[in-house]
Prior knowledge:
Strand content: 15-25%
Largest sheet: 7 strands, mixed
Number of strands: 15
CATH architecture of the largest domain: 3-Layer(aba) Sandwich
Amino acid sequence: MSTIHWIETHPRSARWHSESGLPLPRTVVVADDRMRAAVAYRLACEGTALLWRGDFHNARQLLSALDRRVGRTAPGAVDTAAETFRLQRRFRAHRARVLGKLLVLLDAEHGLDLRRAPDVRRAAAEAYGDFDGPLAVALSELLGVVSARQWREKGVHVPALEARIHPHYGVFAPTRSEYVDLVAQAPLPRGGRDVRVAFDLGTGTGVLAALLARRGVGQVVATDVSARARACARDNVGRLGLSGAVRVESGAELYPPGRADLVVCNPPWIPGRPASDLDLGVYDAGGGMLQGFLGGLAERLEPGGEGWLVLSDLAERLGLRSREQLMTVVGDAGLRVVGRLDARPQHARARDTDDPLHAVRAAEVTSLWRLALPVA
């Protein structure tokens, strides 16, 4: 971690932390209830961070005022969906940088020493772990941490499981049901007979691993490169009483040792560089995970086994990848397509007509591609 410095009767400092990868603020000034929104916005746009020392609820109001000044979408019009997507992503990064200039301090016990501040200690401890305070974080990020704690506590109902999944902070939540439903509906290899081992690559919350176990797979090996995701998956399979059927391992090599009758992979759907670890559930740098899954599948399948690729066509509709490119990678990996199931989007963004990418999102199709080895 880096360190920020400011003057508050005397020189002070605190460690700086940003989950979203915001850069270290070079200039920090103290702000309180007297800070006007127009002044705060100008300072934030200039790169000056505002360390809040006033009332907590007033800080939230100031953050909302900054948000209104930044706006929700990038101004102007562009010709293609790809250009719109890139423009909106740049704008979201700009918005995050501006809002991320309003800072608060967490003490060594993960608490906030501000008037009318809520108790954030449990949420901050789960997100940040132990640290020697004080720790400076963006208020916008801390509010996200608190919101994520509420999601973790109440869970997300997954109809296909008839149970709740409890996402941890920084782990992609299964709020979109279509990809889970596809895995619930797809016919198991060999008609469901003798599916002894399945791999779930990039397991996240463990929702697909749990679903496979519920469908009768003997042993599911779930992998993920993220320590947070592995802890989350273990928590969820334990809550569901499936610890004996699901084993969670590191995903540093993507595939675990051995072979499987079924390999499931739901990689990030957008080939692009993630700005931080929080983006890893959405962006697959250079399509690396997708290519790693396809390139390694043939040598990891048992005879008669299948690989299930769960993938949206959003990247194709944005012009970031073509269907021909995808099929070329499948063919080059020595695989054939034996079936495909499709699902239309059910999430709220597909119905948001104010979204600059509404037409693309409304037309999006998520598919489960059933892949197998060539017929001998």
